[in-house]
Amino acid sequence: MSHPVFALLEQDAGRDAAHLFADLAADYLAATRSGTGPVSTPLTPAAIAERFAEPLPHGARDLHAVAERVARDVMGDMNRLAHPMYLGHQVSAPLPAMIWMEAVIAAMNQSVAVWEMSPTATLVETQLVRWLCELVGWGAGAGGTFTSGGTEAIFTALLAARASAMPEAWENGVGDDPPVVVCGEHAHYAVTRAVAQLGLGVHRAIAVPSRDHRMDTDALEATLRRLGSEGKRVMAVVATAGSTATGSFDDIETIGSICDERGIWFHLDGAHGASALLSPEHRHRMRGVARARSLTWDAHKMMLAPLSGGMLLVRDERDLERAFAQAAPYLFNAAANGAERGWDQGKRSFMCSRRTDALKVWVALQRYGADGMAAIYERLCDTARALHEEIAARDDFEAVHEPQSNILCFRWIGDGSHDAATLDRLNRELRERYNRSGAGWITATVIDGRQLLRVTVMNPRSGREHARRLLEGLAEQAAVEVAG
To answer: N- to C-terminal Cα distance for the chain?
Structure first.
């Protein structure tokens, strides 16, 4: 006798079942629209874990009951990224059209490594990558691939740089004297992680100091001269467009020129900031981007895609193919005459099983247009600027920098009577107290030894009124903290 699960599969494929889960998402978006209710949970990890400490389910359950449990036990204590008072990490409140497309992507379940496994989605990804390469200013030979995120994109870019600098490394390894990678002191940790994973050794990542939270280009030139005098080869220079800590943009034009003069691979980590290319108001921050040999761009950051939607773009797509020069005849098909471009993306990507994440970004561009995406980018940056202005109008907070994007670091200073060590402690505890209150959610960082509060605006619902509410809420919590 057939197991009853097969009847359930057919039942769950219908519209009634789909509406159960679509309604959960729609109700969540509606509930967060007003900006009321808690932004996160006050519960400890242990308290939440206890809720799920149960035996493995063996029998089927009613789907309505399952959906109700998702709403109660899962969604009840999540971080509400769509709430306008969520101003925390660089994780987006996704655009609605992309949220709904996620279900379609899952239903089709195409794998975009091989054309025959995703005959349409592969071509959508190819076209989307071409659009973005055109925004960069690269020619017809440019290309790229979607990735799981910026970490994979940086690893892949440096793998391509290694293939260019050390073509024999794939078969023979990096040897006893591998080259170095130069990056800014505020570069994402993915850079040093990739250097270590590529077998170069983490000490082969050379950090260049900053000036005003940007890579000091004079120090970069001095570092390259010193490395040359020491006989060290430089495999790549990595600059940042939209740093994690402050959202700052390195001087891309100057760094690109320095790399061009020396024939060094120039990778630009634009995971956060490359979306400025969409905005007439902000694209000047990316001036010089066409000099880069490779570029990280995360759609799941400032294009507000659901996770994941990372990308790696390269000026010459063949650089990716050389980086993954590996025969797999059971998967990849060679181009018909050896000169044509092959469609299989697996030859240019670290992953084999890979979702069609490009489809949700393509849908967003179809729905909102590049101009609409630019307006969203500008809105996020405008809100960070509004927070900066609100801080300037008060005496109890100070901003550490002017925002170049949607990120701002600042701190509570009270009446000015507290010493540095006390301010560090109070700001660290203030963030924790504020987040537990449910009134909002922000992050923290340490720059130049100072404990700072950090805001990242990733929700177009957030505006000046929410920036003002944030400061008022922090001030209230600070008063309690000092009094206690």
So the answer is: 68
Residues 206 and 348 in one domain: yes
Residue 411 inside a domain? The answer is yes
Question: How many domains does the structure of the chain reveal?
Answer: 3
Task: Say whether both 115 and 183 belong to one domain.
Answer: yes
Q: Kindly state whether residues 276 and 185 are assigned to the same domain.
A: yes
**269, 457, 473 from 466: Cα distances, Å:** 30, 10, 10
Question: Is 0.90 surpassed by the pTM of this model?
Answer: yes
Task: Convert the pLDDT of each residue in 373-412 to its tens digit.
Answer: 999 999 999 999 999 999 999 999 999 999 999 999 999 9
The answer to whether position 152 is within a domain reads yes
Give every residue of the chain whose pLDDT is below 70, as ranges.
1, 326-340, 484
Q: What is the pLDDT of residue 34?
A: 87
52 with 123, same domain: the answer is no
Asked whether residue 272 falls in the same domain as residue 384, the answer is no
DSSP E strands: which ranges in 327-440? 397-399, 407-412
Q: Cis ω on the peptide bond leading into residue 308 (within 30° of 0)?
A: yes
For 349, 397, 439, 467, the CA distances from 472, given in Å and listed in that order, are: 47, 11, 11, 9
Q: Residue 332 in contact with residue 152, Cβ under 8 Å?
A: no
Hey, is 455 helix, strand or coil?
strand
The dihedral over CA atoms of 129, 292, 148, 460, expressed in degrees to the nearest 10, equals -80
Indicate which CATH number applies to the domain containing 303. 3.40.640.10
Do 202 and 127 belong together in one domain?
yes
> Please, are residues 247 and 406 in contact by the beta-carbon 8 Å criterion?
yes
- Rg of the chain (C-alpha set): 24
| pLDDT score recorded for residue 333 | 54
Domain limits at 442? 369-483
What does DSSP assign to residue 41? Answer: -
Check residue 213 and give its pLDDT: 94
Residue 301: what pLDDT? Answer: 98
What is the DSSP secondary structure assignment for residue 285, as one 8-state letter?
G
In a domain, 296, yes or no: yes
> What is the Cα–Cα distance from 424 to 405, expressed in whole angstroms?
25
- Is-contact 430 453, C-beta < 8 A? yes
Residues 71 and 159 in one domain: no
Buried b (16+ CB within 10 A) or exposed e, 442-462: bbbeebeeebbbbbbbbbbbb
